[in-house]
Structures are given as C-alpha cells and as structure tokens.
Amino acid sequence: MDSLQSFDDNAPIERVITALLKDGAVILDKLISDDEAEQLKAEIEPAYDAFHGKANSKFYGFKTRRALKLFEYSNKAIEVCSHPRVLEIADNILLPHCDYYQIDKSVGIEIFPGEDRQAIHRDDVQYPIQMQGMNLMFSCLVALDEFTNDNGATLVVKNNRSIHNEPTYDQACSAVMSKGSAVVYLGSTYHGGGSNDSLHSRSALATMYSLGWLRQAENPYLSLAPQTVEKLPLRTQQLLGYRQFGKYLGHYPRDPERRYPGGY
Ligand SMILES: O=C(O)CCC(=O)C(=O)O
C-alpha cells in the first residue's frame, strides 16, 4: 500500500512544502510528545460532553464523538494550534494569498470501535469557488493515539484532487502514524476517517486554517465567550480572526493593532 512522506522537526520547510503540494498531504513526525497528546485528550474530554457527545449522521459518524469550542477547555489545544511548524506551513501555503490566515475550525474527533469509514471528501467544498493555484485552506490532524490500519487512521488520496473525478477508497492510503504525529492535508485533498476495526477508540485534534478573507467554519465570535477570548494569547486571538483584515474587512472600534489609521 502507498504511504505518505513523513518529516521530522529538523526537515527543511521547503522539502515539507514541496511534498505537501505534490502529494496533497504529509506526516509531521512527533509534532507533539506522548505526554502532550495525553494532556490534550484529558483537557478535551469535557468538551465532548458539552458538545452533546456523539455525532449522529452518516458523514460525521454514528460511533464518533466530536467537540468544538476547544479553547474554552484546553490550554494545550491553544498552544498546539499555533505550533511553529504548522504556522510555518500556513505561511507558505496561505500567506501568498491573504493578509493573514485564520483558524477555520478546531475539532476533537474520537472514532470508536465499529465505526464505518467516512465518505472521502475535500474540505474546501465548503467554499463555492475554485481558484487555480490558490489553496483556500489546509488541515492539521494530530493523532492523540497511535493511528493504525485497523483503528481508523485517516484515509488520504495522493495525486487526485480533481473536483470532476472523485476517487474511490482503493486509491486512498492510510495516515499510519505514531501518537503525537500529525497528518497535514490541503483543502483540495480527498480524505476521510478510516473504519475502526480495533478494540479501542482513536482520538485526534483536527485544526483547519483558511485564508483570512473567507468565512470560518466554526464561528468563534459566538462560539467562544468574550471573557475566554480576552484571556487568550494575542497570536491566538489573531488566528481566530479578532483583527482587521486589510483596509476594509473586520474593523472594529479600539482595534489594538490600528494598522489602517486612515480607515475606521
Ligand atoms: O477523523 C479523521 O481522520 C478525518 C475526519 C474528517 O475528515 C472530517 O470529519 O471531515
């Protein structure tokens, strides 16, 4: 079976980006430690309950838990979402097409034994546009357990990103990786959760990043309490979209950055 290229933290970013653009996905080996993965799992746990537990649809699964609002619960999620390696990738993939990029959504996903494989899909279909040479978004899905062929490792299709020619499961490879590693895939890359045929659940923290002029999947202005946002690091606030974009979008009174004094 085909596999994804894997890079450790010392690999030059140019190699990571070249592979990501060519294959549509790469693995970042040991992006976080085992202890950090465990901490994330523990901190995200109450978010599942608050987010009415199990997903309940064919696409999101019937034996899968999902949780949003993670920054209300997890300091480690706040830290991991602005991991320098991931932001380096965002700088290369998204920054050429926008003034700043943003977190589109950050979600906990736990796939339980007996779950079916998910429909293979592209994340960027949430936007009704395609722009040649412009990636609208990418995802970083961190494995909080070891991902194996049996327990629901993310299925990823390399080399077919055609919107007109949807791939079949036999074209996909499994993002088999150690706990703490991450699979990064472009918004145009077909992927989906694998079936969990093992005896244990498989957890992940999946964060999507998108061009700053697009609407975010999770609405952080309503999802997170203002008191929570005020206490977040400035970089995280910015990544959530709490800043002006260019001259015309997202302005608000008392913007601490005030980059466009001639504007509002
Ligand atoms: O959990 C996974 O491995 C992928 C999940 C996914 O692609 C989705 O829910 O859109």
UniProtKB/TrEMBL annotation:
This protein's record includes keyword Oxidoreductase: yes
Regions that span the bilayer: none
GO MF annotation: an example: dioxygenase activity
Keyword presence, Endoplasmic reticulum: no
UniProt keyword list: Dioxygenase, Iron, Metal-binding, Oxidoreductase
The protein's name: Phytanoyl-CoA dioxygenase family protein
Organism: Alkalimonas collagenimarina
